[in-house]
Amino acid sequence: MTATIQDAARPFSGTALTALVPPSTRLLGLGEPTHGVDAFPELRNELFRHLVEEEGYRSIAIESDCLSALLVDAYVTDGIGTLDDVMARGFSHGFGASPANRELVRWMRAHNAPCPPSERLRFYGFDGPLEITGAAAPRQALLALRGYLAPHLAPDLDAALNDDATNDALDALLGSDDRWTDEAAMMDPARSVGRTREARELRLIADDLGVLLAAHAPHLTAVTSADDFWRAELQARTATGLLRYHAAMAGTGPTRFDTLVTLRGAMMADNLDAIVRREARRGPTLAFGHNRHLQRDESDLRLGGRSARWWSAGAVVGTRLGDQYAFAATTFGSRGADVPPADTLEGIFSTLPHDRAVIDPGRLATLVEGKPAPRVPADHTYFSLDPSAVEQNDAVVFVKEI
Which segment of the chain is annotated as a signal peptide (predicted)? Predict the structure, then answer.
């Protein structure tokens, strides 16, 4: 019997997907090829339920603001706040409007209600407080970090920083948040405050506060809690990451956009790394975001007529975790009149009988004759699979029509 593409595919299910990832996996990345299409987060919800109920997963991290996500986590773990409020304030990128995200949060809260605290599912954001149009001010992260340290390290804080990190001093250096969040700075470096004297001083202060946090970890975890200390580390990473990002926004070199997406990827990778370490004793984590943020191969993007290349969060964290990181890319066939040509991967996958399929990239390579052509989508917000890099994925999830 001649082998065909069907021999590399199975109907989508959680079991079919996890059969392709290493048993050592601690972080499973599930990508989506475009944002704003609920078919992909709906598929994610189905997978996450399977992972929780059958595979021992206890957390999910999505491509959303890591600080805002604390509100969502407080709701799903302890019932703090209301569903409407956390959907409005707990997500970035407009993701709070997604019905699938709302259903995820509702289901997690219902699942957690009867569980003891140690078994409750946790919700994380792994993106920085960043949007495609700019970045947040570092105020929230810096003041929260200082507020955590001050009651327990007052003498060390004053000696290390010479009163430069009092709330009043930080307020004076920060100025108005509008200066930091000016969207015009994304395209006009002259509008950025990231390389002003005040910003440079804030970067030194953030670094010093982070060192104090790390150096006094044994004392701080004893007098507060491991969870409080973890959140303080998150604030420290975010403060330094935002100040670094704002400095890059003020840059004028030819690789400015490459630097910005590289820094964002590094922030994402650090957050994912910290989540995996925090969850190590509880179970693996599902990460959900754009394919470009979770793939192992080098990512590329065109923005405002300019192109950028960078190593994504998945590529970076994958080098740290080794076979503890697995990645499943998602793609689709038809979207209205946008039908993939027959000689593309998406065109080949469209011949499968399944509406949703899980494909083994290793077997796929032996079954496809020649080199498939890259798909050129009609929709610029969709990024097709790179045929030359598909074997770097542990699995491919295909949705025939959206």
Answer: none
The residues with which 308 forms a beta bridge, in sequence order, are 301
Report the distance separating Cα 233 and Cα 151, nearest Å. Answer: 16
DSSP 184: G
DSSP string, 262-319: HHHHHHHHHHHHHHHHHTTTT--EEEEEEHHHH-SSPEEEEETTEEEEE--HHHHHHH
Taking Cα atoms as reference points, which of 389, 371, 269, 272 lies closest to residue 331?
A: 389
What are the boundaries of each domain within the chain? 5-57+270-401, 135-252
Q: Which residue's structure tokens are 């923005």?
A: 303
Name, in order, each residue with C-beta under 8 angstroms of 175's C-beta and a sequence gap of 6 or more. 193, 198
DSSP helix/strand/coil, 167: helix
Interstrand relation of 325-334 and 299-303 (parallel, antiparallel or unpaired): unpaired
- CB within 8 Å of 191: residues ≥ 6 apart: 182, 184, 185
Superfamily of domain 5-57+270-401: EreA-like (biosynthetic domain) (3.40.1660.10)
Who's near 157: CB < 8 A, 6+ residues apart?
146, 149, 150, 165, 212
Task: Find how far residue 304's CA is from the centre of its chain.
Answer: 23
Q: What angle do CA 289, 189, 69 make, to 5 degrees?
A: 30
